[in-house]
Amino acid sequence: MATSKERLKAYIDPNRCDRSPFCPALRSCPAHAIVMKGGSGLFGFGGLPTVDADRCTGCARCTQFCPHNAIRMKGPR
């Protein structure tokens, strides 16, 4: 059985992401692993959604909800 460090984790491509504070992928994550970083205000305007690898379970649900196909699943390096 794979350990949590061997599982696939979500990665957000900053070049494809539109940085919307209303990101449907962010809201779809059951583990709340996607958070807005570097934004201002209540909703994080101007921030970049990033994945907390410790929280990400590798379910890939976020990839189904990202309207810009900016999220990919990556394995350990």
Explain the overall architecture.
This protein is α+β, with helices and mostly antiparallel strands. It has one domain: Alpha-Beta Plaits (2-Layer Sandwich), CATH 3.30.70. The chain is 13% helix and 21% strand. The protein is built from two helices and four strands, in the order E-H-E-E-H-E. The protein has helices at 24-28, 61-65, and strands spanning 9-12, 34-37, 48-51, 71-74. The chain has a two-stranded antiparallel sheet with strand order 1-4. Strands 2-3 form a two-stranded antiparallel ribbon. The longest helix has 5 residues, at 24-28. It is globular and about 35 Å long. The two termini are 18 Å apart.
Write the layout of secondary structure elements.
Layout: E1 9-12, H1 24-28, E2 34-37, E3 48-51, H2 61-65, E4 71-74
